Amino acid sequence: MLASLIFTLLLLTSMEVDAKFKSLHCTVLDHDFGELLLCKLKAISRFRNSISVQYKLKQPISKLFIRLEFFKRANGWRPFLYNFTANLCDFLARNNNVIISIGYAYLSPYLAKNYSCPLKVIENELLECKNFELDINNLRNRFPIETGEYALQLTFIAKNKVGLTINGSIEYNNYREH
Ligand SMILES: *[C@@H]1O[C@H](CO)[C@@H](O)[C@H](O)[C@H]1NC(C)=O
Ligand SMILES: *[C@@H]1O[C@H](CO)[C@@H](O)[C@H](O)[C@H]1NC(C)=O
Ligand SMILES: *[C@@H]1O[C@H](CO)[C@@H](O)[C@H](O)[C@H]1NC(C)=O
Residues of the signal sequence (predicted)? Predict the structure, then answer.
């Protein structure tokens, strides 16, 4: 009796928060830069999924700018909180952008390689993010987000050209708020 009560409580607690990826789009804008090999959203269970992206670079790069645009869905996608463009290395070196620092720490276990600055990405190098799963509890501790749909669009810019955009959305339900 007690055991089943505890079990039910545990189940309810874990069910209160539910978040997973909803969409993933990768768009190659400049084919001279590289080639997209994989851009995939994969279901693990009803409640969990992961994303994988593979991109093969055709040119060496030493400087990469990245634009982050956040959106929240409310009658279509509306800009939300942040929109900025940064030289990745400037921020990683100074460690002064909390979003990029958190994002990089969060993503690095899923990357095929540890990148460091100054960037030295060689021709034909495969950039890969594999089986990246959403860890909503980790995010929620830092950003008190409400139930809803959110999207993040990443734009990769090198040599003053946009090479690739990746945008993904998540659906987040916090049942305690209802
Ligand atoms: C973000 O900023 C860029 C550059 O200023 C702009 O072109 C873009 O439209 C902005 N995005 C959003 C969602 O507001
Ligand atoms: C990257 O660095 C971390 C910490 O130094 C290490 O645990 C991890 O295995 C490294 N990853 C790769 C792909 O080398
Ligand atoms: C993500 O990209 C797709 C395809 O280009 C587009 O339809 C969608 O509106 C984009 N989402 C956001 C939040 O920009």
Answer: 1-19
pTM for this predicted structure: 0.82
Report the mean per-residue pLDDT for the chain. 83
Q: What is the pLDDT of residue 12?
A: 47
User: Relative to the alpha carbon of 112, which ligand is closest?
Assistant: 2
Other beta carbons less than 10 A from residue 99's beta carbon: 16
Residue with CA closest to ligand 2 atom 7: 109
**What's the one-letter identity of residue 62?**
S
Is 136 in a helix, a strand, or coil?
A: helix
163: nearest Cα among 69, 20, 35 = 35
Q: How does pLDDT run across 124-170, given as a tens digit for each residue? A: 888 899 999 987 777 777 767 788 999 999 999 998 999 999 999 99
Q: What is the third-level CATH fold of 17-177?
A: Ganglioside M2 Activator Protein; Chain: A, (2.70.220)
d(CA 166, CA 178): 32
